[in-house]
């Protein structure tokens, strides 16, 4: 019988399971070109070609298009005029501000999904039922969800009727500047956290049971187990969920915004994706392309920052 | 981060190099070599009456061009201009496309082939041309007229103790009527949907002729607009005041105009609504719900020295996008205003057609009242605005309702947007 291993010892010996380890540099040897070395590249070539033709090329075309004018300047190179126009545009400024609001809601979705996944992982009574229920909204179309919550959150809707019946004030959730975007984001979290939950559950299945047993033997309570074992063990999963949730919020809110607030009131719930659609509908596709490039940059920068920050934050010190 | 910066810089370099060549598509579309085909985009041809009208137009066109195959692509309206814009930029746009008159057509005038001389021979036959003209050129012929009449529910008027046959004619009478309706019934005075910001454009065009003098009105349509003038500010002030005074249903900013607010009126939850004269939310649709209780009233006199006019102009018409098919396109446009086709549709589809010599054969009184006001009608105030200003007006309309912007600030923003 081996002696019980302390949690700390196990964690420190394997600080972050799955992280790429730095290996000492060794002199590279020239590889011979053989069928074995070429075949892997040939196998991925179709995918690379698809990416190049259907992703990279349109992306470059879009960026290229963003440097041309609209309407009478169609096809004329205008340099950074579209970008400068956007920076002074009220709707773009509102979209940029609202991206920050969206960022505040990302940790909430991750937290909700992570906590509920933890409860399912530790097999609370009815966990199988909850797993299905939590995932159910993911399969619904955002338009349907938007239509449902339009009714639920309406000024004369059931939520306000309930509040009124118990003497609470009623709120036009979707028609007020302060509540419009948070309402949409809350509905988005309800509608999509199921996917993050599934990713968390997949992460849990890779968690080293030995670590959890060791923590239990060491007398760690539930919060300590989460903080010192589960979070470091799931660091890559958390990063992945953070990044995909962020991208999902920045690029997947159109359906809900379109049905629930149409960007209003004023520009209170404009997001870059909605602005792109509006600009294109206003016969200004080149300006829309410039806004698309901004959105791409926002997603890239936020994604990279998140990975950096989370890489540090989720490591056991 | 360094790994990312290098490829990005290379990518941007490539893009700038590409840009120097000019990357946008031309506006000329279609396959010019294929003269035997005409691709036409439109929306809303799914109901029986619209389908029958489309068949009648097709028959009129094929009388002239029996060998030309017409491919009609019906697009969803809420995505129409987005799809059309993308298709044009991709060089896969149609030869002809349906446009709303006013802002939607004028903001795309550079993409549409002017057909001023080609349509000169039918000029006297139709009303509503200004909505399809820009910079002295004509881009299409109006098929129907579109206007913003005020409808009211006679039963609610009677319930409130108001005279159902004598609707208000002045702003004071209208205000009194709204106060009475609020106190005597449990419905709102006006049905309003403002989720897309459309409410204020309905309000401005619906009541404009009672606020602006005829000279100011004409100047506005001609592009000489002073948003900071007394009467322009008055429009914004009345809009905000009527909301504060409780004229509208709760949650107007989160209620869609189409079709939620019109459903409120049809369902008897509001005494009045500023509706449309054609297409949707008009006399024929309201008649299905309200029958004899449906009433039509003119705008009310707000200021002295004004002349009340029904706000109405050309509604929709086809624009030619393919320079190589102008001749076919013009014949299609002429087929859409074919007298027989329009006459049939005006009865079946509930349209006020552009050919005013066609008698509207319906016993729906409000429709006949609208037609009777056509001779003194005036174009809509909001469709004279550019796309940018109209969008700003929508957003300010929402902010005025929630008290986030003052009338002065809104007026100065609108003035600035028009340069």
From TrEMBL, chain A:
The keyword Transmembrane helix applies. It is a multi-pass membrane protein. It is found in: Cell membrane. Residues 1-30 are annotated as: Disordered. Pfam families: BPD_transp_1. One of its GO terms (cellular component) is plasma membrane. One of its GO terms (biological process) is transmembrane transport. The chain crosses the membrane at residues 38-57, 99-122, 134-155, 187-207, 240-263, 283-305. Keywords: Cell membrane, Membrane, Transmembrane, Transmembrane helix, Transport. SUPFAM superfamilies: MetI-like. Gene3D superfamilies: MetI-like. Residues 96-306 form the ABC transmembrane type-1 domain. InterPro entries: ABC_transporter_permease (IPR051393), MetI-like (IPR000515), MetI-like_sf (IPR035906). The keyword Hydrolase does not apply. CDD domains: TM_PBP2. Belongs to the binding-protein-dependent transport system permease family. This is Sugar ABC transporter permease. It comes from Agromyces rhizosphaerae. The lineage of its organism: Bacteria, Bacillati, Actinomycetota, Actinomycetes, Micrococcales.
Automatic annotation (TrEMBL), chain B:
It comes from the Bacteria. Pfam families: SBP_bac_1. PROSITE patterns: PROKAR_LIPOPROTEIN (PS51257). Keywords: Signal. Gene3D superfamilies: Periplasmic binding protein-like II. Residues 1-24 form the signal peptide. This is Sugar ABC transporter substrate-binding protein.
């Amino acid at each position: 019988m081996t002696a019980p291993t302390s949690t700390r010892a196990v964690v420190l010996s394997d600080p972050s399971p799955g992280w790429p380890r730095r290996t000492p540099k060794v002199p590279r040897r020239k590889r011979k070109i053989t069928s074995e070395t070429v075949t892997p590249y040939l196998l991925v070539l179709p995918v690379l070609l698809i990416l190049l033709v259907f992703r990279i090329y349109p992306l470059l075309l879009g960026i290229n298009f963003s440097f041309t004018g609209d309407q009478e300047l169609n096809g004329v190179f205008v340099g950074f005029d579209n970008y400068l126009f956007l920076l002074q545009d009220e709707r773009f400024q509102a979209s940029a501000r609202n991206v920050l609001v969206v960022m505040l809601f990302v940790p909430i979705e991750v937290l909700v999904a992570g906590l509920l996944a933890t409860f399912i992982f530790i097999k609370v009574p009815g966990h199988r039922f909850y797993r299905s229920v939590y995932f159910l909204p993911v399969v619904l179309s955002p338009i349907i969800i938007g239509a449902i919550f339009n009714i639920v959150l309406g000024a004369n809707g059931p939520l306000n009727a309930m509040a009124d019946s118990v003497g609470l004030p009623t709120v036009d959730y979707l028609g007020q500047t302060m509540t419009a975007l948070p309402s949409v984001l809350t509905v988005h979290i309800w509608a999509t956290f199921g996917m993050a939950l599934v990713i968390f559950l997949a992460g849990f299945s890779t968690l080293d049971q030995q670590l959890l047993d060791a923590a239990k033997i060491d007398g760690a309570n539930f919060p300590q187990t989460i903080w010192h074992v589960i979070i470091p063990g799931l660091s890559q999963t958390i990063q992945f969920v953070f990044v995909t949730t962020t991208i999902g919020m920045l690029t997947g809110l159109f359906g809900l915004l379109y049905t629930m607030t149409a960007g209003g009131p004023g520009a209170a719930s404009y997001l870059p994706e909605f602005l792109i659609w509006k600009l294109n509908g206003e016969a200004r596709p080149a300006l829309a392309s410039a806004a698309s490039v901004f959105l791409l940059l926002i997603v890239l920068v936020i994604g990279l920052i998140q990975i950096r920050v989370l890489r540090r934050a989720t490591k056991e010190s | 981060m360094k790994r990312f910066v290098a490829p990005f810089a290379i990518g941007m370099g490539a893009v700038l190099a590409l840009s120097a060549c000019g990357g946008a598509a031309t506006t000329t579309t279609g396959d010019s070599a294929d003269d035997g085909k005409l691709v036409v985009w439109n929306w809303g041809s799914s109901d029986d009456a619209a389908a029958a009208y489309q068949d009648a137009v097709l028959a009129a066109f094929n009388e002239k061009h029996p060998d030309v195959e017409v491919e009609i692509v019906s697009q969803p309206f809420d995505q129409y201009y987005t799809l059309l814009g993308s298709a044009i930029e991709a060089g896969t746009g149609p030869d002809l496309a349906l446009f709303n008159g006013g802002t939607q057509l004028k903001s795309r005038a550079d993409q549409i082939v002017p057909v001023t001389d080609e349509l000169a021979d039918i000029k006297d036959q139709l009303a509503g041309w200004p909505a399809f003209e820009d910079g002295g050129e004509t881009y299409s012929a109006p098929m129907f007229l579109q206007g913003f009449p005020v409808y009211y529910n006679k039963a609610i008027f009677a319930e409130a103790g108001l005279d159902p046959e004598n609707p208000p004619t002045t702003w004071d009478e209208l205000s009194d009527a709204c106060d009475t309706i609020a106190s005597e019934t449990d419905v709102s005075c006006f049905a309003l949907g403002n989720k897309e910001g459309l409410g204020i454009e309905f309000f401005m065009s619906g009541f404009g002729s009672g606020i602006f003098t005829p000279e100011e009105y004409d100047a506005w349509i001609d592009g000489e607009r002073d948003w900071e003038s007394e009467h322009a500010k008055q429009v914004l002030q009345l809009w905000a005041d009527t909301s504060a005074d409780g004229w509208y249903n709760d949650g107007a900013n989160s209620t869609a105009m189409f079709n939620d607010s019109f459903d409120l009126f049809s369902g008897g939850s509001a005494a009045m609504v500023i509706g449309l004269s054609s297409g949707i939310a008009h006399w024929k649709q309201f008649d299905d719900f309200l029958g004899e209780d449906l009433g039509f009233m003119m705008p009310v006199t707000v200021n002295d020295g004004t002349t009340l006019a029904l706000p109405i102009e050309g509604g929709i018409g086809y624009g030619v996008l393919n320079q190589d098919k102008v001749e076919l396109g013009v014949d299609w446009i002429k087929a859409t205003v074919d007298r027989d086709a329009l006459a049939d549709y005006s009865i079946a589809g509930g349209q006020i057609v552009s050919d005013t010599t066609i008698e509207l054969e319906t016993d729906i009184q409000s429709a006949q009242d609208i037609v009777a006001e056509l001779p003194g009608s005036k174009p809509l105030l909001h469709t004279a605005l550019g796309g940018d200003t109209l969008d700003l007006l929508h957003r300010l309309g929402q902010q005025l309702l929630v008290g986030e912007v003052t009338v002065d600030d809104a007026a100065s923003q609108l003035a600035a947007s028009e340069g």
